[in-house]
Amino acid sequence: MPRIVREAGVSWEGNVARGTGAISATSSNAFSGLQYTVAARIGIPEGKTSPEELLAAAHGACFTMSLASELSKAGTPPKRLDVRCVVTMDEIEGKGHQIVHSQIDARGTAPGCDEAAFAQAAEAADASCPLSALIRASATVAVTASLS
Amino acid sequence: MATERTMSTTWHGTLMEGAGTIHEAPSGAFGALDVSWTSRAEAPDGRTSPEELIAAAHSACFSMALSHGLAQSGTPAERLDTTATVTFVPGEGITKVALTVRGTVPGIDEEGFAAAAEGAKTGCPVSKALAGVPEITLDAVLAG
Prior knowledge:
The structure holds two protein chains of two kinds. Helix content of chain A is 33%, strand content 36%. Chain A is an alpha+beta fold. Chain A has two domains: 8-42, no CATH class; 51-147, 2-Layer Sandwich (GMP Synthetase, Chain A, domain 3). In chain A, the strands form two sheets. A three-stranded antiparallel sheet of chain A has the order 1-2-3. A three-stranded mixed sheet of chain A has the order 4-5-6. In chain A, helix 2 crosses helix 3. Chain B has helices at 37-41, 50-72, 110-123, 125-129; strands at residues 3-12, 19-22, 33-35, 79-89, 93-104, 135-142. Chain B is an alpha+beta fold. Chain B starts with a strand and ends with a strand. The mean pLDDT of chain B is 96. Chain B folds into two domains: 1-48, no CATH class; 50-142, GMP Synthetase, Chain A, domain 3. Chain B is built from four helices and six strands, in the order βββααββααβ. Chain B is elongated. Chains A and B meet through strand 1, strand 2, strand 3, helix 1 and helix 2 of A and strand 1, strand 3, helix 1, helix 2 and strand 4 of B.
């Protein structure tokens, strides 16, 4: 299988309390100069992204593609999938800040697929999505799935 | 206190022929982003991918942790430039993350900077979440 390589870059200026970073998608140029700060990461985003928001985007998109693949393999390709991903970071006693949970909620329409088959495809997608496996090593990952 | 961040994706059709949209970030930081299998696995053609978003999350998290570590040891950074390169092998998973950082940090030597960078690589929350990646490399050097 081919190796897929993607790169992103950050410029950070200043110390952590008052500093600001800018995040750019250097492989695709799909986004650039996204601002982030400690205050916006921990508190109210106020228009700024954060590592956790980007991780939620990555995990949600990765799971969605895996689910499309599993449904297609089962002979019931999806018409539409809507997947929400919520990533939670918490401060753990003695361990500092840690990503503790990623919650995936998938709704979909796949002609010929019943609730049980959809749930089974979601389970298979969770098993085949590379990010689910990685996150599960140090946090919990939970998946709910139902036909819309 | 726990911090939650939510993102949503909509997909139409099969993996190979279909396409998806990552919806506008609830933070307001970026608008909708198109994704497809072709742009994930072949040329990006202006589209982001899960691997690029992981690279963005990891480089951002690492930079913030490094800035924090440097400030704590009394040598705050003036500027850090970080890249994260994520390698994904379909069927195998994410096999490598390469972190590269160039820093302008008054009052620190190469050894001190490398040690601070190593601490950020081990300790930042995204590093911990990606600890299962078989190879995470770090190249940390002070800028000219």
